[in-house]
Amino acid sequence: MSVLSKSQLYEFRNSTRYFSKAVTESLNEFSSESKTGKTTIFLSHKHDERKELDSVISFLKKINVNVYVDWLDEGMPKTTSGKTATRIKLKIKENDKFIFLATEGAINSKWCNWELGFGDSHKFDRNIALFPVRDDGFSFSGNEYLQIYPRIEYVSRNSVSRRIGGYFDEGYYVISPRNEDGTSYYTKIEDWLKR
User: Which of 38, 43, 150, 168 could form a disulfide with 129 if both were Cys (CB 3.0 to 4.6 A apart)?
Assistant: First the structure.
């Protein structure tokens, strides 16, 4: 199992595109897509990390979900205020799932941490997950409280079968935090999004 590196994330985005688009153009296009009958996700992220955001949205769109991004919401106030926080709270409640794009920048963001705390109270623990992305791709270490959340990671067949003695298809899984006996539960991301 491994945390996705930023370069792997960008490669995924580029592999899903037939032609290159500017990140802003791509993000604006996705916001106008059909939202009918899809699982909805509130995606918490650092606003200035648009390339990472676009890449994660490309990944999630391949699974056929609807992703909510606050700054693409026409109902969001033009300037940040208490109304911004009220609208974000409403959207976190309205969406089926909450995913925190856990980059170093997002982990250090006051707004992202506030969203995660609010998401925790409304989505914990079946409908919330971290999507950790690191520059190095080798490990993920953040603030200790992040250890209580399920995380989305790529799992190779060998890494899991050696670790827990079972057969797994390679792919992306939502992995629960270790419980008291040291085990974690692995749910294919597609299955997690459907429940």
Answer: 150
pLDDT single digits (tens) 129-149: 999 988 765 555 557 889 899
Q: What is the pLDDT of residue 27?
A: 60
Number of Cβ within a 10 Å radius of residue 148 = 13
3-state secondary structure 130-181: EEEEECCCCCCCCCHHHHHCCEEEEECHHHHHHHHCCCCCCEEEEECCCCCC
Which residues are paired to 66 by β-bridges? 40
pTM above 0.90, yes or no: no
Give the separation between CA 65 and CA 134, rounded to whole angstroms.
24
Calculate the dihedral angle through the C-alpha atoms of 3, 7, 9, 15, rounding to the nearest 10 degrees.
-140
- The C-alpha atoms of residue 190 and residue 65 are separated, in whole angstroms, by 10
Residues 6 or more apart in contact with residue 121 via CB below 8 angstroms: none
The amino acid present at 174, given as its one-letter code, is V
Burial per residue of 45-68, b for 16 or more beta-carbon CB atoms within 10 angstroms, e otherwise: bbeebbebbbbbbbbbeeeebbbb
CA distance 1 to 171: 10
